[in-house]
Specification:
6-stranded mixed β-sheet, alpha/beta, single chain, binds magnesium ion, binds adenosine-5'-diphosphate, Rossmann fold
Amino acid sequence: MQNPAIQVENIAYSYSNGEPVLHDISFRLNPGERVALMGPTGSGKSTLLENLIGLKQPSKGKIIINDILLEQKTLAEVRRYIGFAFQDAKDQLFMPTILEDVTFGPLNYGVPAPEAKDIARQLLIDFGLEAYAKRSAHELSGGQRRLAALAGILALKPDILILDEPTNGLDPAWRRNLAQILLKLPVKVILVASHDLNWLSRVTERALVISSGRIHLDRDIQSLLKDSETLENLGLPVGW
Ligand SMILES: Nc1ncnc2c1ncn2[C@@H]1O[C@H](COP(=O)(O)OP(=O)(O)O)[C@@H](O)[C@H]1O
Ligand SMILES: [Mg+2]
């Protein structure tokens, strides 16, 4: 069996002001897996994802990405493998125009400018944003900003894709488009935090459910989706 793409062992995390948010989290994601990270609002999904990409450091335990232990000195190398979409797309867009935002990553990694621009233009077309290429992110709707941020992430051709509530602000047509784009991507692993059960069931196969700072459930998403009682008990009522 191949080594896991993401291996998390007994990590804990507390914000400086108090209660621990993550208690003792362990899981492995193997190459080829598409995984949902579920859990009620405030359960620690974003905190966990930010630990995985080294934006936050766990107080104990370890994280291994593509066989590399995540620590200060490996951070830049590990980040090169991971495309991460923040829950708030505004955190991801900072250039004067979204074309420059999407071009920024490839340029930064040494792709020649004309090629970087071609990659960016194609992604803006894929995400329906070609007419907005010269606008700044704050002149876009929330959903458009999210799509622009996703284009910027995919421009880096990540090996591992980690998305924090990617369907927020998207209409049904774009939720479907995004699912189709993600299903076609040649990435090793996708991990998506979301509450959007129906969408998750089309994009992912396995669900990790976090509750009170622990992984409460690790299960095939299709069977979980049919188990409304379990979902209700986990604070994830179906149909709302
Ligand atoms: N910067 C912060 N300082 C202190 N507590 C925080 C901060 N960010 C989040 N929290 C707390 O950590 C918990 C988990 O938050 P978060 O990871 O954002 O949850 P989720 O993404 O599942 O909604 C919440 O109780 C939240 O109030
Ligand atoms: Mg969150």
